[in-house]
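Quick note —
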Amino acid sequence: MGAYTRDSNAGNRFGTLDPEDPDLQTVESFVEACYEDEEEEFDWQVLAVLAWNLRQGRRTIRAELESYGLVFQDRANVRRIRTLKDNPHDRWYGLGSMPTHGGSGWEQITGFAGQEG
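Predicted structure written out below.
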């Protein structure tokens, strides 16, 4: 069995990539696969799998991949543009809400974490 054990609760933490893939076991094997496929870029998922398999930091692996001439393709920044029709009071619910925020405040008044009583 390899170094990767699937967590049934977390799903696949590496997206569509398989950490058992022989091309993702070492930096050199990944670079050779990129040269064979004439690829010049790598993304965050490849970086995560290589870091997991090699037990090294992503910064170290990224620097090594860039030394071979590969270019890091960063994640796209997803933006939501608000319009005049958007609800200005959606801080606690809806698309503009922050799920990690404490809430609107009524939870602390009516009970612990929104539970009555």
